[in-house]
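Chapter summary example: a protein plus magnesium ion.
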Amino acid sequence: MNTVIEVNNVSKTFGKNTNLNRVLDEACMYVAEGEFVSLMGASGSGKSTLLYLIGGLDRDFEGKITLCGKDIGSLKDKELSDLRLKNVGFVFQFYNLVMNLNVADNILLPQTINGKTKASLKDELDEILELTGLTDKKKAMPATLSGGQQQRVAIARAVMGNPAIILADEPTGNLDAKSSQEVMELFSKLNKEKGLTILQVTHSERCASYGTRIIKLEDGKTIG
Ligand SMILES: Nc1ncnc2c1ncn2[C@@H]1O[C@H](COP(=O)(O)OP(=O)(O)OP(=O)(O)O)[C@@H](O)[C@H]1O
Ligand SMILES: [Mg+2]
C-alpha cells in the first residue's frame, strides 16, 4: 500500500503562556493512494488546522507528517513549496477564483504562474474541462456562474498538473443541496475514473458517504 499522507503523533497548540489551546493532541492518521477520505468532527475540533498542516501551509507543529514519502518538517521552505505545487491541489469553501480571468485562465493559473505555457497545457485543460462538465463554460467569467459551477472550476484548477492528492476544506460548505451533490459526484468520479486521492473535510454525513472512509477528530485525536 502506498500512503500519500502519514500523520504521526501530531500536536498543535495555539496561543501563549496561560492561554494555550492544544487543538491537536498526538493525532495519527494516513491516506493511501486511491482513497477518498472524509475528515469529520465538531466545529472547532481542528479539522482545518490538520488539513493545513498536511498541506504544508502551516509548518509550526510537533510530531511528524509525511507527504508523498517526504518528511515535511525536514524540508526547506522552497523544497516544501515545490512539493506542494507538484503534489497537492487545494479546494476551499470559498472558491478563491480570480474574478477578472475567465474559466480556462483560472484553471491554468497555478501552472502558468510557474512558467508553463498555455499551449503546453491545452490537451490537459480540455480533458479536465470535459471531466468537470465545464467545456461550454471555458470562456465564461466566474461572476456569470452558479456557486456549484464556480466550485467545479476550483476543482478543475486543483486537478490540473495531476497532483498526488486533493485537499478540500468543506468544499460544499457554501452550496445548496443540489450543487453539493454535483460536487460530491464529481469528486467520486475523479476518484474512481482518474484514481485521484482525495481528503475532504466535511460536516455532512451525506457528503462523507460519497467517500471510501471516514476519520473523526475528537479532543485533538483522530478516530477511525
Ligand atoms: N490562527 C489561529 N490562531 C489561534 N487559534 C486558532 C487559529 N486557527 C485555529 N485556531 C483555533 O483552533 C481550533 C480549531 O480550529 P479549526 O479551524 O481547525 O477547527 P475546524 O474543526 O476546522 O472548525 P470548523 O468546522 O468550524 O471549520 C479552534 O479553537 C480555533 O479557535
Ligand atoms: Mg474548518
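Key point: Strands lie at 3-14, 21-32, 36-40, 62-67, 70-71, 88-91, 165-169, 197-201, 213-218, 221-223.
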